[in-house]
Write a structure and sequence with these properties.
This protein is mostly helical. Helices cover 68% and strands 3% of the residues. The strands form two sheets. It has a two-stranded antiparallel sheet. A two-stranded antiparallel ribbon has the order 3-4. Strand 1 and strand 2 form a beta hairpin. The two termini are 54 Å apart.
């Protein structure tokens, strides 16, 4: 048998014995692999400049009073105190939650149905339909908002034209709180249902077909297979779409801003959290307060995401 491996040693000129080589420091290791670090440095430099610095600066700015041009003045917790006592902020939070409910639940439901149909063997031209359902997601959001503004126009909208064909009086969609929220929700559904359907489709295709074949042999119906096989196996995918939809739903801005303006339309029905932040920071030039609203929104999104995660995971634990 061969000799056991010896630790690498280095020779000390002042001694006749060999001593173990010292471990390299962090600096020497970085210098040794400097070419590799240099190759990946552009990403980290760009992230530090355009990602990390704005985040840290916004936290610092949230404790300041600043109009974007003059000298900053330390404001302590006044920005946060005003935020939690401002009725318009909570109105924006309520509008955002309502739009999220109106859009996310139907969106994920339709996405699951579309994915199930696209995965069915009897559907022809499936690739064509997959591309078609995904196209709204890559369409310019400003262009989509302009198109939907013509659809929901109070006087000459396409929707009111179809209602007139059935003798129904025109509805002033953009002059009512529920009408504005409905229009924004439909825009969100139209844009994101295909994206989530593709994600669900990938999850469906990862489920082994032997499970469905075994269930069919045991006499299970299609509905039973859907709720006993499809839904449990798709639970991680459903959790992912719920969390991403929550994060996206809490950040709705362009739809409301293009559709009804910076104030959220009549009675502020379309005033979302991000639109409120934009108005205070970039219209009214309260950059310190706008930063505080941004961090408040971050906390709300984190809490709401954790709540949704616990609900979905809790439902899964009961089923198991």
């Amino acid at each position: 048998m061969g000799q056991p491996l010896q630790k690498r040693t280095q020779f000390d000129p002042g001694s006749s014995m060999q001593v173990p080589e010292r471990k390299r420091g962090l600096g020497s290791e970085i210098w040794k692999h400097r070419k590799e670090y240099l190759a990946i440095s552009p990403f980290y430099i760009l992230f530090a400049v355009f990602g990390l610095f704005p985040i840290l600066f916004s936290m610092y700015l949230s404790f300041q009073k600043w109009d974007g041009i003059g000298v900053m003045t330390f404001n302590g917790l006044n920005n946060y105190q005003f935020m939690v006592t401002d009725p318009e902020f909570w109105k924006a939070v309520g509008n955002t939650l309502l739009i999220w409910i109106y859009s996310t639940i139907p969106m994920l439901f339709f996405a699951l149905i579309i994915a199930f149909l696209l995965n069915a063997s009897f559907v022809r031209f499936r690739t064509f339909f997959r591309i078609g359902y995904f196209l709204p997601n890559v369409t310019s959001l400003v262009a989509v908002a302009i198109v939907f503004s013509t659809v929901f126009s109070n006087n000459y909208g396409l929707l009111n034209y179809f209602l007139s064909l059935f003798g129904i009086s025109p509805v002033e969609w953009l002059n009512k709180t529920w009408g504005i929220q409905l229009a924004v929700s439909i825009m969100v559904i139209w844009r994101w249902v295909g994206y989530n359907a593709i994600i669900y489709l990938a999850g469906l295709q990862s489920i082994p077909t032997v499970l469905y074949e075994a269930a069919k042999i045991d006499g299970a119906t299609g509905i039973q297979s859907f709720f006993r096989i499809t839904i449990p196996n798709l639970r991680p995918i459903i959790l992912f779409t719920v969390i991403t939809s929550t994060i996206g739903g809490m950040q709705i801005f362009t739809e409301s801003q293009v559709l009804v303006g910076n104030d959220g339309g009549v009675s502020g029905g379309g005033l979302t959290i991000v639109l409120y932040l934009y108005r205070e920071a970039f219209v009214n030039n309260y950059f310190g307060y706008g930063s505080a609203v941004g961090w408040g929104m971050f906390i709300l999104i984190a809490l709401f995401s954790i709540f949704n995660w616990r609900v979905v995971q809790g439902g899964g634990a009961k089923d198991e």
